[in-house]
Amino acid sequence: MNWLKSTLASVAGTQEPIYGPEAIQSVAQQTQETPYTELTADEMRWKAYQYTNVETQTFYIMADDGTLAWVQVIYSNVAGIHTTAQFNTKIYTLSGDEPHKWYSDPLYNLMFDEKMVSFGADNFSVTLNDEGTAYTIKSAVNEGSLVELTFTRVTPGFVIGKDGTSYFGTDPANPWGSMRHAFWPRCAVTGTITTKEKAYDLGGRGLFIHGLQGMKPHHAAARWNFVDFQSPTYSAIMMEFTTPPSYGSTKVNVGAIVKDGEVIYAGTTNSATHTEASQDSESDWPEPKSIKWEWSGTTKDLADVNAVVEGVLGPRLDRIDVMAEVPGFIKTIAGSVAGTRPYIFQYSPQEKLKLKLKIGDTEVEEEGSLFCEATFIS
Length: 378
Known about the structure:
Keywords: Cytoplasm, Endoplasmic reticulum, Golgi apparatus, Lipid transport, Membrane, Nucleus, Transport. By secondary structure, the protein is mainly β. The protein has one domain (22-376): AttH-like domain (AttH-like fold). It contains three helices and 27 strands. It has a 16-stranded antiparallel β-sheet that branches. Strand 7 and strand 8 form a beta hairpin. The two termini are 24 Å apart. Mean pLDDT is 90; it is low at 1-11.
């Protein structure tokens, strides 16, 4: 039984006791002194912790020709004894006429540069330039998906608060877990992904997120909401997670409104509301049909900022059963013991939504492209 418990804790995870909301030190507490911190190249380092954690770099692309795609490198450590990395590529078929392009490949002979800002493996690299202003992603890991992309930030990168991190644990001085996100909210993208069928020119706009879950993912969060809105002038992003009941079902929301060269607002006083939902028969989760995202705060010179993006999501792009590739007996145990049933719902409304932005007494509206996810875990 002890062997089963330890194995299950590593693979699927057991339920935690009820610690209460005081056992999470939300990054929102940091914003009382420091709303956000602009990133230097030094702060773009990989953490590569030697205990159970998942670290990701995800590059979202909205190409000028309407193509929607993302690439992602995942670096994970299980219990400090097993380190792996994976490279994922997804190109969406917005028409729904054919399956999305999806490639997921393990990486071998992993390495970091001396500064821990660039990552490499056999036939793969993610390189940050010396100025700390651009990432270049190159992959020949999969012959069916050759990647060569450059993301150049056109707005300062940032973390919310001082370090962008929420900490978990009953002793704030010695946390046992963490959640961190660093953002480049508005990037210029150049380059291609070449599949066996065609070469996709992905010149356009992008969003880069460096994420770290320094604990078992389903212990950190029970639900997620994420939105990436890009218009000709503005970018609006939001990442929200809700902890499991063990940490008081606490919501932590980080987001920003930016434009070229300027962070207008970044902070934690935001919300994502599913204004309409229906029960999905396959996943048994309440699939959102309409969502309202709201940002509220101040600029550096203390002008009030309020922004809203809301509307009908339309047909979902995808519904992902995260446990689909997990062996059946582990999936059963994970669901029954840990209450874990992770599904991701992804959307990009064909009817473009508008950002309604008010800064002080100035109001603007601008239409843009949107990608969002609603994730249910436990």
